[in-house]
């Protein structure tokens, strides 16, 4: 019951204005908004510039009107940019928080210059540091606020007393900022 038979509406907002509320009528699929299905719609509008949010929802009518929306991707045919709006929530009066409309902000690379470079650095750092988190290692985090150590033991115990001296001699230190 993650699909919907209700009428679905979207408003797209960009730096040059918005589309107003538009009903998503004709999917490239014969039946739209089915569970696990990706639907594609063409929405005609003036060029809005960089997009920053959408409002998407339904009218709550019809049997099985609740809907679980994973995400919306808008492809700008002029700039060839993809804008991703993550939802991963219910639009259902009887599920989640009961809302049948959601305001979603853009979460893609077009609004975060350098995001790909940051992700690559994160992956490189994890590849270099993940050995510290292997089974059997004890980790100590130094908390600059308390000026003490927090220890994570291999048996899943946490010593958060903030001891002022290292108990384990040579271990791996991680810095915590509070």
Automatic annotation (TrEMBL):
Tell me one Pfam family matched here. Answer: PLAT
Going by the entry's taxonomy, the superkingdom of the source organism is recorded as Eukaryota
Which PROSITE patterns has this protein been placed in?
PLAT
Q: Where is the signal peptide?
A: none
Domain named PLAT is located at 1-105
CDD domains of this UniProt entry?
PLAT_repeat
Please state what the protein is called: LOXH1 protein
**Taxonomy of the source species:** Eukaryota, Metazoa, Chordata, Craniata, Vertebrata
Gene from which this protein is expressed: Loxhd1_0
